[in-house]
Amino acid sequence: MRICQLDGRRVALWGWGREGRAAYRAIRARLPTLPLMLFCPADEIARVAADPSGTASDALLAIESDPSGERLSAFDVVIKSPGISPYRPEAVVAQAAGTRFIGGTALWFAEREDARTLCVTGTKGKSTTTALLAHLLRAGGHRTALAGNIGLPLLELIDADAGYWAIELSSYQTGDVADSGTRPGVAVALNVFPEHLDWHGSQARYVADKLRLLTDARPRIAVLNAADPTLAALSLSDSDVRWFGRDDGWHLRGNLLHRGAEAILDTATFALPGQHNRGNLCAVLTAIEAVGLDAVALAPHAASFQPLPHRLQTLGVRDGITYVNDSISTTPHASLAALELFRDRPVAILVGGHDRGVDWDAFAQAMRQRPPLAVVTMGANGPGIFDLLAPIAASGAFALERADDLPDAMDKARARLRGGGVVLLSPGAPSFGAYRDYTERGRHFAALAGFDPESIASIAGLGIA
Q1: What would the 3-class secondary structure string for 77-90 be?
Q2: Mind listing the pLDDT tens digit for each residue in 41-58?
Q3: Least CB-packed of 51, 255, 302, 373 within 10 Å?
Q4: Minimum mean pLDDT range among 87-96, 265-274, 389-398
């Protein structure tokens, strides 16, 4: 649905985060006389009035704080922020009454059918992969946009011009691409692990929603990880499928990057933390090759890529202890990948946060085989993780501590690392409840470790360059 097609319809916005504000501005720029309803929490209404978008003087914008099923049903179209699940009871009621729910991503794709889009999704590694993709394209002299879930809503760039669009998509947004009716040029899928179960309602629905970028959006070219069982089992008759991570394409042998049988370069000195990020370089190069560019020539530019904040980010050393901020980690799989990076050093890992009902059994099994020095649990699901790990820790394989919050967890971790080592924040769970988002959690971790939160927080390269 294009924005002009909203004209004459009853339209509401649901959510006033950055995505909601971007949707408001994009609609107002094209439809200045369209009446709009905004649903947002009561404590945000004052912020809406003070917003520099001009909402205070917008007589055609009404605001309510109670988006009940009955109220949502009064609208033909509701443009919702990504974090709001369409499976919420009030949304289900409205959909049954005929209300259509879409996101800003769907509006952008419908407006920009001519854009050369390279979309990246996956449970783990999608932000770094998208940023690395933009980095290499720009190194090749191509004007490239870096946007999407990585921190810049697409609608903020609705009228911008770029040769290529490197777009990160969360599982909240992949369906929007399909709903837009516009086929992406390239869709990159890195992996699929259980995640966001509270938003999707079940693991099966999460997988189906995540894969809609491939199954329903029908990308012209699909770049898939051959090592992921879910992706390897897909049949995509409408897409040209290119594989990475197997011997006939881009793949790694240790740290050595190969294209088929040909060794291209050694990645050992690259600032890409973790083997999984080096593996995702193979995804980037496969995507670059898919659009007809010389990936072999661009590959060496990965050496100048700088890691993103809150993603296996080494903050520095204090009193012999190295502090690593992996606040973006919201699955146990991500925590295990982080531990693998520091397997040869004494590590105290901080895990736990918002409880999404994700299974931690695989994490527990890994603690039987290659445990860190210490595990400190915290957050709403901390007690459950503690109870799961307690019988394993009883053997003396690792120390297990229970903490009330992040400051307490930091104290307990430091106490376990008297001789030096790594305090690793890789929670394997979202930050909701204790923090607004993973960024706020990571900034608090940095401050507790004695580092300036302002200096570690920004993502370089967002927008068009």
Answers
A1: EEEECCCCCCCCHH
A2: 888 888 787 777 677 789
A3: 255
A4: 265-274
- pLDDT confidence bin for 199, thresholds 50/70/90: low
Range of the structural domain that residue 92 is part of: 3-102
* 84 and 121 together in one domain: no
**Which residue is listed with tokens 């993780």?**
385
Residues ≥6 apart with Cβ < 8 Å to 413: 348, 350, 374, 376, 401, 423
Euclidean distance between the first and the last CA atom of the chain, given in angstroms as a whole number: 28
Whole-number mean pLDDT of the chain?
A: 94
Amino acid identity, position 173 = Q
Residue 462 included in any domain: no
Mean of pLDDT values over 235-248: 97
Whether 143 is in a domain gets the answer: yes
38, containing H or E segment: strand 36-39
Q: Which amino acid is at 120?
A: V
Structure tokens at 406: 């992040």
**Sign of CA pseudo-dihedral 40, 42, 47, 48:** positive
Among 307, 329, 354, where does a domain finish? 307
Give the pair of three-digit tokens for residue 263: 């060794």
Task: Give mean pLDDT, residues 349-365.
Answer: 94
Q: Are residues 127 and 226 in the same domain?
A: yes
In terms of C-beta density within 10 A (0-12 exposed, 13-18 middle, 19 or more buried), how is residue 123 classed? Answer: buried
Dihedral angle sign, alpha carbons of residues 166, 169, 174, 179? negative
Q: Is the pLDDT of residue 352 over 80?
A: yes
- What is the Cα Rg of the chain in Å? 23
125 three-class SS: coil
- 255 and 229, same structural domain? yes
Strand boundaries in 182-281, DSSP class E: 186-189, 221-225, 240-244, 250-253, 256-259, 262-266
- Choose one of 282, 307, 332: the last residue of a domain: 307
The structure's pTM equals 0.88
Statement to judge: residues 303 and 317 lie in one domain: no
- pLDDT band of residue 103 (cuts 50, 70, 90) is very high
Q: What is the pLDDT of residue 460?
A: 85
Which two three-digit tokens encode residue 5? 């097609």
